[in-house]
Amino acid sequence: MLQKIARLTFFVAALAFIGAWGYGFYMENHFTSYPRQPGRASEHVVPYRWKSTTIYLTTSESEIVNVLHVIEIASLVLGGLSFATVWWTRKRR
């Protein structure tokens, strides 16, 4: 039973990581058109280092990027722990 739960957890963590990584990749591909100077009118005021260049994001985009990084890290840790659980509780022949 523990192995089934760990495998399901690993699968969900892998999907969460792939989803967060994919959406982050999609967002970062659009960063090339973002302003290099802060603009109050367009609300691009949060600095963000991207490929050794500082671009300016809106506050909501900055929050999304931060949440995506947290999801990526948490899903890697959770996936690693569930993988280790499956590995150590498997039946040895």
Structural overview:
This protein has 93 residues and is mainly α. 63% of the residues lie in helices and 11% in strands. The protein has one domain. It has a two-stranded antiparallel ribbon.
Shape: rod-shaped
Parts with pLDDT < 50 across at least 5 consecutive residues: none
Distance between the termini: 19 Å
Helix and strand content put the structural class at mainly alpha
Strand % is 5-15%
Overall structural domain count: 1
Pattern of helices and strands: HEEH
Based on DSSP secondary structure assignment, what is the total number of beta strands? 2
Mean pLDDT: 87
Spatial order of strands in the largest sheet: 1-2
The largest sheet is: 2 strands, antiparallel
Supply Rg.
Answer: 19 Å
Helix content: 55-70%
Please outline what is shown here.
The chain has 93 residues and is mainly alpha-helical.
Keywords:
two-stranded antiparallel ribbon; rod-shaped; mainly alpha; 2 strands; 2 helices; 93 residues
